[in-house]
Amino acid sequence: MTYQSIFENEQQSNGEIMNKTILITGANAGIGKETARQLAMVKTTEKIYLACRNRQKALAAKEALEESTGRSIFKILIMDVSDSDSVRRAVAELDEPVDALILNAGGMGGKEPAKRTKDGVTVITASNLLGHAILVDEMLKAEKINKVVLFASSEAARGIKKMGMNRPALKNSSADEFASVFDGSYFGKNFDPMQVYGAVKYGGTMWMSAMARKFPHIRFVTMSPGGTRGTEGMNDLPFLKRLMLKHIGMPIFMPLMGLSHSLKAGAKRFVEGIANESFKSGVFYASKENVLTGAVVDQSLYFRDLKNETYQDNAYEAVRRFF
Ligand SMILES: NC(=O)c1ccc[n+]([C@@H]2O[C@H](COP(=O)([O-])OP(=O)(O)OC[C@H]3O[C@@H](n4cnc5c(N)ncnc54)[C@H](OP(=O)(O)O)[C@@H]3O)[C@@H](O)[C@H]2O)c1
C-alpha cells in the first residue's frame, strides 16, 4: 500500500498493527486521545499507557476511552514532560517495556511559553522536545522500548507560508545555535510562540533523525498530524489570534484551502506511522508543500537541511546539554 492510499482510505487498517503495548504522552486530549482511541480499536493492541500530567484529566480521558471503545486496556502514567524529574520518575514506575512510544504532548507552550524551566530551556521547548528526549533516553537505558518511537512534529518545522509561519532560519544550525533556540535566547524580545514553535519542532525533528542513526534497532519516525481541528492547541493564543485561527479559520476557511482536517484524520497519521514499516526511520513525514492535509511525503524534498547529518548531530548535542 502506498502512503497516499493509506491516507486517502478513511477506514481503519486492521491487521497491520503489531504493537501490543503503546505509550502516548499528552493522551488526555486532542490528537493524543484520539490516537489512543483508534489504537484501542485494533484487536492486537493489549495495553495503552496514557502519559498525562494531570490525574483528574487522565482519569476522565480513561473513562471516556473505555466507554467509546468498550475495552479496559488503558493505564494512567503521571508524567509532566516539561519536568525532567517527573519524566524520570514515570519511566522508573513503568514496570514493563512498550513496543511503541508516541511523543505527542506539546503545542505552543501554554500561558508562559518563554519562561525557563529548572532545566534551562523555555517551556515551549521543554514540553515539545526536552522532556521527550529525556524520556527516550531513559527508556533506552532501561530497555523499556522495543520497536518504534514517533515524534509529533509539524509542517511549521519547514514553514507554512499560507499561515505566516516562517521556515526556521538558523544561520548555520550549529549546536550553539540550536541550544540558543532551546533556551529562548536566540529570539530575544521577538519571542513569538507561533515562530518559536516551528524552530523547536525543527530541532526535535533533527534530534529524531540523529537518534535513528545512533539506534538502528529502533524505528524513529517523525510525523506531523497535519492541520487538525477539534484540539485544545490554540487555547492559550491571544484572544484575536485564537478567534481568527481556532473559531473562524480552522473550521470554515482552512478546510477549503486544504489546511485543516478532522481529528480522526490527524490521529490516523500517528496510527499508521507506528504500524507501517514503510515509514522509514529518520525521515520526517508531513503534508505536501502548500497544504496541511492529504498524503504525507518526506519533507527533505522541500527543505534540504533536514537531510544534513551534521545539523542533525548538532541538534542532538544541543538538546543533551540540558539533560
Ligand atoms: N492540531 C494541529 O493542527 C497540530 C498540527 C501539527 C502538530 N501538532 C502537534 O500534535 C501534538 C498534539 O497536539 P493537539 O493539537 O492534540 O494539542 P492539544 O489538544 O492541546 O493536546 C495536547 C496534549 O498534550 C498535553 N501536554 C501539554 N503539555 C504537557 C506536558 N508538559 N506534560 C504532559 N502533557 C502535556 C496536554 O495536556 P493538558 O490537558 O494537561 O494540557 C494535552 O493532553 C502536539 O505536539 C502538537 O504540536 C498539532
UniProtKB/TrEMBL annotation:
GO terms for molecular function: oxidoreductase activity. InterPro entries: NAD(P)-bd_dom_sf, SDR_fam. Keywords: Oxidoreductase, Plasmid. The keyword Oxidoreductase applies. It comes from the Bacteria. Belongs to the short-chain dehydrogenases/reductases (SDR) family. This is SDR family NAD(P)-dependent oxidoreductase. The lineage of its organism: Bacteria, Pseudomonadati, Bacteroidota, Cytophagia, Cytophagales.
